[in-house]
Design the sequence.
């Protein structure tokens, strides 16, 4: 599900690519966290890019969530938050390059990176309310940091999806590019970062991270809050309804992937 390419790109740019649909499954999150930690240990790394080679890679697997108990949901949420904390702890910037659908946990992953860019085909949203739950990986905090409390509240309360153009207008992402221009542009930005002073970059990230990143104990409290709706009839009915609808749309989605 995860491809890790450290040191193969010149100028100290490491790349983690999400290669499968729903790469943020339980297994995928474990692989991603392991890859991020490897990047952190690489003395040659100066920038991390998180990209995708499948349009549905920035998604969780809802079928894993539908019948979770509150305890299982709390552990699931906490595991996702460890990814956000690992990205914040990197001594250099992380860049998200979104080229597809980034909903729920995928949107949270994109916001956990220091810089976020997207293609014209991208979609975003904290859609958890449609499934009877709340964002699991710090989305309530990060969305309000980027968009402001009122706009973030509207999007979380309604579970709305929005395109890349709106995401840029609201401040979720920095630039919208054609799909074939996304990665060249992101690598250009990464190359500029590599040329900057390493210590200055590290210190700048260190001090603003103290303001923007939640404490691990608070993350555990959020994971418990996320877990409360699990096991209720509303949560299960909503998630199973989503899965049924997803199965109906599967043939069209597969055709879209073939054209990707």
Sequence:
């Amino acid at each position: 599900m995860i491809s890790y390419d450290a040191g193969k790109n010149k100028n100290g740019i490491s790349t983690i690519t999400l290669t499968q649909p729903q790469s943020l499954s339980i297994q995928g999150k474990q692989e991603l966290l392991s890859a991020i930690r490897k990047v952190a240990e690489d003395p040659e790394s100066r920038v991390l890019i998180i990209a995708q080679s499948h349009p549905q890679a920035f998604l969780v697997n809802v079928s894993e969530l539908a019948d979770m108990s509150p305890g299982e949901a709390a552990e699931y949420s906490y595991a996702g938050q460890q990814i956000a904390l690992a990205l914040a702890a990197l001594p250099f910037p992380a860049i998200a390059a979104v080229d597809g659908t980034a909903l729920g946990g995928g949107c949270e992953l994109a916001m956990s990176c220091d810089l976020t860019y997207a293609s014209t085909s991208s979609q975003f949203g904290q859609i958890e309310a449609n499934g009877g739950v709340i964002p699991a990986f710090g989305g309530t905090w990060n969305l309000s940091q980027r968009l402001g409390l009122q706009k973030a509240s509207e999007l979380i309360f309604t579970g709305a999806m929005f395109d890349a153009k709106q995401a840029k207008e609201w401040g979720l992402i920095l630039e919208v590019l054609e799909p074939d221009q996304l990665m060249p542009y992101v690598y250009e930005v990464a190359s500029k970062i590599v040329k900057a002073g390493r210590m200055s970059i590290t210190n700048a990230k260190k001090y603003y991270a103290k303001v923007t990143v939640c404490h691990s104990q608070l993350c555990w409290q959020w994971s418990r809050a996320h877990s409360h709706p699990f096991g209720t009839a509303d949560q299960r009915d909503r998630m199973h309804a989503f899965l049924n609808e997803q199965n109906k749309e599967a043939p069209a989605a597969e055709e879209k992937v073939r054209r990707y």
Remarks:
- The longest helix spans residues 233-259.
- The chain has a mean pLDDT of 87.
